[in-house]
Design a protein that fits this description.
The chain has about 325 residues and is of the alpha/beta class. It has 2 domains: about 5-175, Thiolase/Chalcone synthase (Peroxisomal Thiolase, Chain A, domain 1, 3-Layer(aba) Sandwich); about 180-325, Peroxisomal Thiolase, Chain A, domain 1, CATH 3.40.47.10. It is built from 10 helices and 13 strands. The chain has helices at about 25, 35-40, 55-70, 95-100, 120-130, 155-160, 220-240, 255-265, 280, 290-300; strands at about 5-15, 20, 45-50, 80-85, 110, 135-145, 165-175, 180-185, 195, 215, 250, 305-315, 320-325. The strands form 4 sheets. Strands 1-7-6-4-5 form a 5-stranded mixed β-sheet, with helices on both faces. Helix 3 (about 55-70) packs across helix 4 (about 95-100) and helix 7 (about 220-240) runs parallel beside helix 8 (about 255-265). It binds acetyl coenzyme *A (ACO).
């Protein structure tokens, strides 16, 4: 009988653009305050891509760091998947742009758009490729330049988002790795969190798409996010026959500290076993989970052999989780 093959994290990396915008900086041009933003979201600052700096630039830097950590060369990659909702171009995909820059020409490369759940979706697809035996070494990236589609005069959204990228190299392993993944979507709620312009809807090239901006019904999204994160966590525990107390680390989507605290409370996880980086970079959509994962790995908090639960929720709505033995 053939042995079960797992997808195991061989290395992680992340990248944040140089420019930092603090809450005080924001309060100079929009009617808000550090006190409001910190108490409602836990965000203290966000990074903003420089002029000309693109999603593929951010993703590339995160990928190089993950590949260095994994000791993997570009020639060894047989698949690159990028979770992003802010691609450089409509096409080619951001994955193709990064692939070429890495010198990994020839391997398969594509993007996955699941808004803030983009990394979990991409990670899940990579897991399936490795488990099936189709791929051995996969680069998974979550990269975004959300600030490019923010309405900087709308205080209900502009304080929440930032730019950033994270990446992991997954390798086929006979011992352990990703144990299960769970994905969901509900397209019926699209208007609660969306960017209502696309190639076949309201696309006006002659106007350079002025008006392509994120719109969000914040408190509605909050309620759905909390419920979805709770139910997918339950589903994951049940599927693996484990108790919430078996989990060593929770790495939730970094959108809002209050959502993170609520999820942790339901899972009976003390906050010192929850990775929180939202204060440093705000909501980086697909970048958020791999950014937090990389920080946790590099700071030595997550150790080999520990059980880690990743979770995300985003526009679509989309949501999902992955349980892994690091
Ligand atoms: N500064 C000061 N006041 C503000 C600001 C601001 N930046 N933004 C809103 N307010 C005001 C509102 O106008 C409102 O005033 P009013 O009562 O006079 O009308 C008041 O603050 C309260 O507003 P709420 O929207 O009810 O505030 P809430 O406590 O819900 O917090 C927030 C808002 C932070 C947006 C929260 O709802 C949230 O985090 N939602 C979830 C967002 C999220 O998780 N998204 C995840 C997916 S993102 C993706 O997929 C791209």
């Amino acid at each position: 009988m053939s042995k079960q093959i797992y997808a195991r994290i061989a290395g992680t990396g992340s990248y944040l653009p140089e420019k930092i915008l603090t809450n005080d900086d924001l309060s100079k041009f929009v009617d808000t305050s550090d006190e409001w933003i910190t108490s409602r979201s836990g965000i203290r600052q966000r990074h903003v891509a420089a002029e000309g700096e693109t999603t593929s630039d951010l993703g590339y830097h995160a990928a190089v760091r993950a590949m260095e950590a994994a000791g993997v060369t570009a020639e060894e990659l047989d698949l690159i998947i990028v979770g992003t909702t802010t691609p450089d171009l409509i096409f080619p995909s951001t994955a193709c742009l990064i692939q070429h820059r890495l010198g990994a020409d020839g391997c398969a490369a594509f993007d996955v758009n699941a808004a803030c759940s983009g990394f979990i979706y991409a990670f899940t697809v990579a897991d399936k490729f490795i488990r099936s035996g189709a791929s051995k070494t996969v680069l998974v990236i979550g990269a975004e330049t959300l600030t490019r589609m923010i309405d900087w005069s709308d205080r209900t959204t502009c304080v929440l988002f930032g730019d950033g990228a994270g990446a992991v190299v997954l390798k086929a392993d006979e011992e352990t790795g990703i144990l299960s993944t769970h994905l969901h979507a509900d397209g019926g709620k699209k208007e609660l969190l969306w960017n209502p312009v696309g190639v076949s809807v309201g696309f006006k090239p002659e106007e350079h798409n002025v008006g392509v901006r994120i719109k969000m019904a914040g408190s509605e999204v909050f309620k759905y996010a909390v419920k979805a994160m709770d139910s997918v966590a339950e589903e994951t525990l049940e599927a693996n026959g484990i108790d919430c107390h078996d989990i060593d680390w929770l790495i939730p989507h970094q959108a809002n500290l209050r959502i993170i605290e609520s999820t942790a409370k339901r899972l009976d996880m003390p906050m010192d076993r929850v990775i929180v980086t939202v204060d440093k970079h705000g909501n980086t959509s697909s970048g958020s989970v791999p950014l937090a994962l990389d920080e946790a790995v590099r700071s030595g908090r997550i150790q080999r052999g520990q059980l880690v639960l990743l979770e995300a929720f985003g526009g679509g709505f989309t949501w999902g989780s992955a349980l892994l033995r690091y």
